[in-house]
Amino acid sequence: MRVDAWIRDVPRWLASQEEPQDWAFGLRSSEPLRLCWVADESWRARLDRSELEHPAGQPELEHFLGDLGKVANAHRRGDELGLRLAAQDLARSCPALLRPVNPDPNPPVGSRHAALLAALEVDVAPPGYRDDLLVCLGLAGKPSSAEEVHAAVCRLATGVMELVKSQVDTFTRLLPPQLSASLADGSLRRYTAQVVGGSL
Length: 200
Known about the structure:
two-stranded antiparallel sheet; 2 strands; about 55% helix; globular
């Protein structure tokens, strides 16, 4: 068992309950806790708990589209490292984008590995989502070429955007007004098609 020690002031530690955790792929998460010592017993009631829960992240559609553009630019330049890095970032944003149309994991995920498994096994996802997500993250069973990663990004982006557009009423309530309008009028769908070089 690995044991880590760090120091944080109590207000910041308690405030972290309101923050999504990067390691959780945008899903609701919890960290097991055991309070071993307090300097003053008056703090025990405030701090003693068996876990610290964190909320799910918001669907970051802007980041998703930005990372798609980075993949496309890197592909045109022949920048394999840049392509793979942007593909990982795009893939990490997908579970939070799909979360509004999928049930939250119950119980909340308690580790990065559990979060990845939950992200891979969502009920509502585009065709080929699981395999393409693994390729984009660099976690597929066999090494993928840059062209295979690019193709996986294009399929993933197209599929996710199709799904988001099909659930437009759900997503427009969660997105900033300008982005909601672009989703509703089809602009984001057309942009995705242009970037991946396909036709939606």
